[in-house]
Amino acid sequence: MNTTSLLAQLQTQVQQLKASVTSEFLPLEIATLNFKPHATSWSILECLEHLNRYSRFYLPHFAKALAAAPTLALPQPVRYSWLGKKSLDMVNPGNVKKHKTLKHMNPHNSQLTAAVLDEFLQHQDTLLKLLEKATKADVNKKTIPVEFFRLLKMRTLEAFEFLVMHQQRHVQQAQRVQAQSKQPISLVV
């Protein structure tokens, strides 16, 4: 796959995420948005706040990297580093293994409002603009610091893919929470 194809695929996936959140979560009442199936699980808003925290870190780094990136006229083959492959495998929505999140990225038991949804959608708009800008840049350079250890860097394109896959993973988690909120509560006596 080349960089142009992957960037187009990521743009489509971000548009789908945006559409899902808009149609499935925006109409919900605050009680449903804050519903938790278990005391230790996240609500819909906590899933999206977690993603907002990642976007607050990564989006400025993407903007900075793209502003400094050399312009490329032709698509390049997609290249992955060891760190990129490992990171993508970890956040892949098909990977059912749970991972512990960093404390400052964990929104568990936060007091959240529907403003989380608005912020998420604004981040998606910014991400779409950055992905469009990336189509003209060398995105195979290691320029994006990894959130948990900033001395490590991912290639710009693999970091974009990481962010989108991470969002897909947690939007799917939020959709499962929503489905559980609709199930009747049964009391065992």
TrEMBL record:
Name by which UniProt lists this protein: DinB family protein
SUPFAM superfamilies given in the database record: DinB/YfiT-like putative metalloenzymes (SSF109854)
Alphabetized InterPro entries for the sequence: DinB-like (IPR024775), DinB/YfiT-like (IPR034660)
Residues in DinB-like domain copies: 27-174
Source organism, top-level taxon: Bacteria
